[in-house]
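User: I'll paste a sequence; please echo it back and then give the predicted structure.

Assistant: Echoing your sequence first, then the prediction.
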Amino acid sequence: MTAETSQTLDRGLRVLKLLADTDHGLTVTELSHRLGVNRTVVYRLLATLEQHALVRRDLGGRARVGLGVLRLGRQVHPLVREAAMPALRSLAEDIGATAHLTLVDGAEALAVAVVEPSWTDYHVAYRTGFRHPLERGAAGRAIIAARQRPRDPGYTLTHGELEAGACGAAAPLIGVTGVEGSVGVVMLADVVPERVGPRVMDAAREVAEALR
């Protein structure tokens, strides 16, 4: 801690991070041990966070992340979208296909930014807000690949999984704390051209660097 930082705020943020990392919640005693502070301090932190709906406590007294975090999370998408747009524009223009940034939303993949190429006669319509199961489509499959092979997920190619006659290529975002997603393109083709996969990986790295 430095003179410019708040110890109380730091502890409150640490509480939220600890709760976000568990599916079963934590008791006051468990939080006290992990934070290295007494139970009275933890009670005060939880009471304050509860007032803002950032934390809730179940009937057993275990603290969990509250729904207020979702309201804050909705504001993250515009910031992520803005950071990703330069790389997506470059990707769309280079490949001549619709480029997109997709983030995890529960069990679904959610397109939060889409850029269409300016010079092609036709391209796949792919809209911001489009959702699909993580298990279908290149964007979702790339995210799953990163979960299974975090060190070397590579890129993912699909054909006809979301739209008949459309191919997809996507690569996951790597090394971005708190963001799970992928960058990809979708095009009307029988097969994805060989250079598209590596180019998508480059774009994913550019977006990841912009978000760090």
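The longest strand covers residues 98-105. The mean pLDDT is 92.
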